[in-house]
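Per reviewer request, we include the raw input and output of the structure prediction for the construct analysed in the revised manuscript.
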Amino acid sequence: MSDLKYNRILLKLSGEALAGPAGFGIDVSEAEAIASRIKEVHEMGVEVAVVIGAGNIWRGKQGLDRGMDRATADYMGMLGTVMNAMALMDALERSGVFTRVQSAIEMRSVAEPYIRRRAIRHLEKGRVVILSAGTGNPFFSTDTAAALRAMEIDANVVIKATKVDGVYDSDPKKNPDAKKFDRLSYIDVLNRRLEVMDSTAISLCMENELPILVLNLWDSQALLRALNGEQTGTLVNG
């Protein structure tokens, strides 16, 4: 484990990562595919925490467009992340990886309350920890929750899992001439308005010098290469 570039990571997943071809709901096979990637690096000795969104279950914008209260919409999204966390937990446990779900909103019958020292202790004991319900507060995204939790648990890096191999200056699916960045500074990301994470999350990482690595989790070798210190994806730091 000492030869690895990162020994403790915070993996940020979108809720859509669990969705099937329809782009909505929870596809068990997708949860199993993600679990297999996590298991692979977990068996290398990497301590893994996960923050997951809820876009596959609830998009608050739909409610806001109809006049829904923002706080209500955000709380619904937080509850959706708990459902996703439980689905991923189940897939990990079935693959033989001990897992704990912690929630920023107390619901003791399905998840532990989020307690920083307990989360760290779980990681030290070799358990994957899924941190759900965002920050527990409305008006903050799961990107911000990922940055906050990563700092709280002393993660070496936030790994933003996407389905492209890094950050581009435009959408590579629409523009074949899109340029990929190997490295960006936090200021570059903010000034260019690149969709790495939201501005609050980027600012938190910048203030605390926490690197962000954007990579394609669905590339079977990308995460392994990153952990071994090889160039992959896009690194945001400095």
